[in-house]
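User
Take a look at the entry that follows and flag anything odd:
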Amino acid sequence: MSQKSSDTASLTTFKEAYEILKHNADSLEQSQALDIDNLVSVVEQSIDAYKVCQERINAVELALKHAFDETALKN
């Protein structure tokens, strides 16, 4: 596993993962020449970060749904 991929394995927050996604997207957009040797590790790192973000979003959606369901039951 590359160093960047192992960095994303320790991600625990949405903010950390989002910053990696933003950094990678910005780097790819701003590069004049695509570094094909580094592309695989950037993609792997981005996928790992995306998964962390998606898990956090799903958890928030579930918590909100639960909260709204509880509120509806009390009314």
